Amino acid sequence: MQRTGNSFLNSIPPVTKNLLIINFLLWFATIVLRQVGIIDLQEYLGMHFWRSSEFNVAQLITYMFMHDSSGFVTGFSHIFFNMFSLWMFGVLLERVLGAKRYLFYYLTCGLGAALVQQLAWEFTWKDMLLASTTNSIGMSADELINLINAGKAAFTLDDFYSQLITVGASGAVFGILLAFGMIFPNMRMFIIFIPIPIKAKWMVIGYGLIELFFGLTGRMVNVAHFAHLGGMLFGILLILYWKHKGIIGGYNGYN
After folding, report:
1. 220 found inside a domain
2. DSSP conformation class of 167
3. Is 61 inside any structural domain?
4. Predicted TM-score (pTM) of this structure
5. pLDDT tens per residue across span 110-138
6. Structural Rg of the chain based on CA atoms
C-alpha cells in the first residue's frame, strides 16, 4: 500500500488549498524581506486609503492576501485564525459551489470588504485626524486641515492618509462564513466558550451583530470591522442572487 505524507493537503479542494498556500507564503515573505531590508511588501500590497499617494487600485485585491507582519509571533494569530476559518468553512463550500464559482465569490467578498472599508474611512478620516493630533484640542477638523495645508504642522495630510492601511483575508472569510450559514443554516456548530452546539445561521447572525457593534462604537480600533461587514454584505447579495436564479439552494441533511 502506498502512503503519502501530504494526505491532509490532498484532502483540501484546489482553490481553498491554493488560497491557504498563497496567504502563508506572502505572510512569511513579507516578514523575511522586511527583516533583510529588501522591500516592505505590505506598503505596496496592503490597501491604503484612496486619498493617499501610496494607494493604487490593485490594492483592492492584493490586500486580502496580506496579513499582520509586525512580527512572527504577533502576526501569526492574525493569519492563523483567518486561514483556519477559511479551511473550516471553505472546504465544504468549495465542493458545493464548484471551484470557479467559489473563487469568484471569495474575491467578490474581499473586494466588497475593501470598498466598504474605503467608504468607512471616507466618512471618519477627519475625526481620526483630530484624534491623532494632540495639539488639536478646541479645533474643528477643518481648522486643523487648514493649519496643515498652510505648512504649520509637523506632517502633511498625505502623511496622515498613508497611515490608513488594512491587510487581511478577514473580509473574504466573513463572506465565506455568511455563505456557509445561508446554505447550511441548520448545521450545528461548536463554538469556543459556548457549551452547546448552535445552528450555523445563528452563529452568522451573532458574528454580524458583534462586528456592527464594534464598528459603530469604535471599539477595537485596530480591526477593520466595516470591512468584515462589507464582506458579509456582498456575500449575502451574491448568495441571494444565485438562489433566485436557482444556481444554489439548501442541502438535505444540513437544513
Report:
1. yes
2. -
3. yes
4. 0.88
5. 999 999 999 999 999 999 999 888 777 77
6. 20
